[in-house]
Amino acid sequence: MHTGQVLAVQQSGEIPSEYLTFTLASESYGIDILKVQEIRGYDCVTRIANTPAFIKGVINLRGVIVPIVDLRIKFNVGEATYHEFTVVIIINVVGKVVGIVVDGVSDVVALPAQSIKPAPEFGAALDTRYITGLGTLNDEMLILVDIEKLIGSEELQIMDTTEKSQGEAAI
Amino acid sequence: MTSDGIDLRRFDQVFFEECAEHLAEMEQILISLGDREPDHEQLNAIFRAAHSIKGGAGIFGFDDMTLVTHVMESLLDLLRNNEIPFARGMIDLFLEAGDVISMQLAGHSEGKPVRQEAVDLVRGKLQQVIETGAGKGRRLPEGPAPEPSPAEKGCEEPPLPSRYRLTFTPDPEIFSRGIRVESIISELSGLALPGAFQCSAALLELPELEGFDPERCITKWQFTLDSPAGREQILDVFMFVADEEQLCIEELPKRHAMLVCLPDLAAPPAGSPPHQVEPDPPGRRAYDGNEMAPGAFGRRGGEAQSSIRVNVAKVDQLINQVGELLITQAMLAQLSVGLDPILHEALQKSLAQLERNTRDLQGSVMSIRLVPISIVFNRFPRMVRELAAKLGKMVELKTGGDSTELDRGLIEKIADPLSHLVRNALDHGLENPAARAARGKGPTGTLQLKASQVGGRIVIDVIDDGAGLNRDRILAKAQERGIACSDSMSDEEVWPLIFAPGFSTAEEVTDISGRGVGMDVVLKNVHSIGGRVQIASEPGRGARITISLPLTLAILEGLSVAVGAEKFIIPLNVIIESLQPRPDQLKSVNGRQVIQVRGDYLPILRLHQLFNLETEVLAPERGILVLVELDGDRAAIMVDALLDEQQVVVKSIETNYRKVEGSAGATILGDGRVALILDVTELFMMQKKI
Question: Hey, which end of chain B has fewer CB within 10 Å, N or C?
Fold first, then answer.
């Protein structure tokens, strides 16, 4: 491709973004693939006392303690069962590594910017605040989630709102 | 060297660190002087520090810093050369200047505000000392007259000049190091007698035009000068510039005809006329000997620095990785337990070897983070000096065990509590000379700071020979503040009362201490790093406050316990004993169960209750009670079973999650699972809420 063409494409915003798609109950969701660190199975979760039910606990991810959030419980969709096929998406946002439990991971898709439509005010298990738009893929609707906003939200209680002893306990 | 140059910003951090070191060194020397006059060696050391700061600041473009250091350096230079008599106020002035430079440094490195008026004030003061003191010096006859100003040369009989021929073949990278050859030339010409300086340049190679890099120095210079200056003074011009092999100095026979050394090539006009009286620019100057170190001119080559600077993040990463290795090793060890020792003898031997190796490795890696406590102790001489002056007391500070090493993280956190204790000892503990005389003590009080390693802990003592703690006053104050106490309490019970929040027995609040925010903060800070504080005091004889700290925060000796399906780690340092209670030891107070152990009644903390865990062990007599004590609070933690005593690597939960109530962090067990480390203080608080 000539340089001129690349520029033209960039200007018209046609470089497609890639999304990792996953399912919660019957709905398909997509998150920015660049925010995803890895995908792994669900095991060896250590419970943490006095936390909401959707915080499943923490795991040892190669020496790093990572909290696990079950989005199915949080958003009241699907059945929160755990077996060998339960999938955890490890996400790296706002300087934190967090695992989210979903029903299943489907695919990585590329969506051009113009195929993303603004989200309506209602209609998904997720609050519209965390939805950046709706994408269409093979006649199927994909709900695009602003995972950074979701993880950073007070609702999930992952961040310390007081921001006090940051790093104090770190070695 | 690439054509796009180098970004000096990258080195800013190095400069900041070095500058801070130089400042600390300078301060240390100044403080050690007391009121004595510094000897030549000490003056030189201070001077070197100031000079290095100035040089660095100049290279990195922090011009505001060069201004102060320049004036300071000028004064020091005059002092060294006995052109200005030493006055006692100078030490304070230098200290003040050091503070201003620190402030400027903080301004550059952390963006802290810089009070320009303070900077100007210090500069003005320094300048004033230079002006008023100039000419009053006791000029000593011996020694080469260093850098006489042109005006002085006329009226004084100069030493017989020597003729030097210098061949300077600089390192090709010299420009990228920020060195300007012009300033060297003008400095050299300043050393030369009027009209007796010649300079010529020659190209070492003639590169192809395409390959020509203007930032590479391919020129070699030859200078010829008649100068009264000594050889060392000339060498010093090249301080930080040239290595020995790059500079060749020949002393030519005296009274040699001037025109012998004709330029090889069409040379630039021979130097600048040395008689031009210019304002002394804050740049390089020539300085006398002493800075000569073996190896390179002006470099600290003698005391071969056998250390390297490493980013703390890298060390932490290394520690983390060794922690990982430790966990992997523990996993392997666990997997091999079930194997038949006869069939797998070789494997088990290797695993044992692996265990030893990993422990050794861990020890070595942990020691990287250890730094000597002198880093903290060094800040006290000055504080004590200033406080003592303010309070009108005479105090001698003695430090011991300066080389005791502890974790860097601990060093940072122990500094504030220690300075609180030192302030307290000076303000409340030590008496003024009159009061001391009345008690038959010498007028000078002694304050001792001692550090030592005792077992797996570091012990720091703050000892003063002052009045000691006043039992009656503490009790009276405690009653006034509504703190539970009684006259029958033993001394050991009375002293800790001063740790209560808002407690202060100082009769008047000074700006040094007495606001009552001290001791409870000390205790809290020390606790936050796993330490303990003890007080011993004898009326009229003095007090001793002892802080004991763990060696490191990264590794913890713990007891792993099981509750239901979960495992927890209880730090070993809080555990007194573990026992399985007999039914007759269990009593009930207000519906809550307590256990009677040797006459004491301790509350029972049920972990499964605090952490909402499911377990089959609900009665204390079926489980195990772990008796813990922290800050005089005692309790029995009820668990299902004791598992193992082990060293665990402390991991932060907060890196990726929020603070978890009741835990001081987490660790990874041999099976790869995460276990929480219990924070006993928080457990006590959680229990109170139930």
Answer: C
Q: Which ranges constitute the DSSP H helices of A17-127?
A: 71-74
Please, what is the average pLDDT of chain B?
A: 77
Q: What is the mean pLDDT of residues B221-249?
A: 76
How far is residue B323's CA from residue B315's CA, in Å, rounded to a whole number?
Answer: 12
Check whether B145 has a pLDDT greater than 60: no
Structurally, how many domains does chain B consist of? Answer: 5
Supply the Cα-derived Rg of chain B in whole angstroms: 34
| Whether B471 and B613 share a structural domain | no
The minimum CA-CA distance between B234 and chain A, rounded to whole Å, is: 51
Nearest chain B Cα distance for residue A112, angstroms: 32
State which of B522, B550, B578 marks the end of a domain. Answer: B550
A37/B contact by beta carbon, under 8 A: no
pTM of structure: 0.50
Instruction: State whether B22 and B104 are in the same domain.
Output: yes
Name B521's Cβ contacts closer than 8 Å, sequence gap at least 6: B416, B417, B420
Residue B275 has pLDDT above 50, yes or no: no
Residues B585 and B498 in one domain: no
For residues B572 and B672, membership in a common domain is answered with yes
CATH number at residue B225: 3.30.70.1110
**Would the pLDDT of B353 be above 90?**
yes
As beta bridge partners, residue B534 has B546
Q: Does B166 touch chain A (CB under 8 A)?
A: no
Give the ipTM: 0.76
Domain positions in chain A are: 17-156
| pLDDT of res. B461 | 92
Distance between alpha carbon B555 and the CA centroid of its chain, in Å?
23
Q: Are residues B398 and B492 in the same domain?
A: yes
Can you give the residue range of the structural domain that contains B211? 155-260
Q: Do A58 and B666 count as a contact with CB atoms less than 8 A apart?
A: yes
- Single-letter amino acid, residue A56: K
Name B370's Cβ contacts closer than 8 Å, sequence gap at least 6. B405, B406, B407, B408, B551, B552
Q: pLDDT by residue (tens digit) across B450-505?
A: 998 876 678 899 998 888 888 888 888 888 877 777 778 888 788 888 887 767 65
pLDDT at position A83: 84
CA–CA separation, B447 and B428 (whole Å) = 12
CA distance B53 to B24: 12
Q: Does A67 touch chain B (CB under 8 A)?
A: yes
List, in order, residues 6 or more apart from B318 with CB less than 8 Å away: B365, B368
**Nearest partner of B529 among B410, B632, B677, B416, judged by Cα:** B410
Segment (H or E) for A18: strand A17-24
Tokens of B132: 């008023």
Of B324, B610, B665, the CB nearest to A63: B324
* B672–A44 C-beta distance less than 8 A: yes
pLDDT digits (tens, 9 = 90+) for B560-572: 999 988 899 998 8
- Confirm if A154 and B658 have CB atoms less than 8 A apart: no
B219 and B320 share one domain: no
Q: Which two tokens stand for residue B570?
A: 């209880």
Q: B74 φ, ψ to 5°?
A: -60, -45
The CATH architecture assigned to A17-156 reads Beta Barrel (2.40)
Which residue shows structure tokens 């504030």?
Answer: B416
- Each residue's pLDDT tens digit, A63-98: 788 999 998 888 887 777 888 888 999 999 878 899
Average pLDDT over residues A3-20: 58
CA distances in angstroms from B689 to B592, B610, B611, B682, listed in the order given = 13, 10, 13, 11
C-alpha B309/C-alpha B13 separation (Å) is 11
Please choose, from the candidates B509, B415, B498, the residue with its C-alpha nearest in 3D space to the C-alpha of residue B462.
B415
- Per cent of chain B over pLDDT 90 is 5
Q: What is the CATH number of the domain that holds B641?
A: 2.40.50.180
Helices and strands: H and E segment counts in chain A:
3, 11
Q: State the DSSP H helix or E strand holding residue B154, giving kind and residue range, or none if neither.
A: helix B150-155
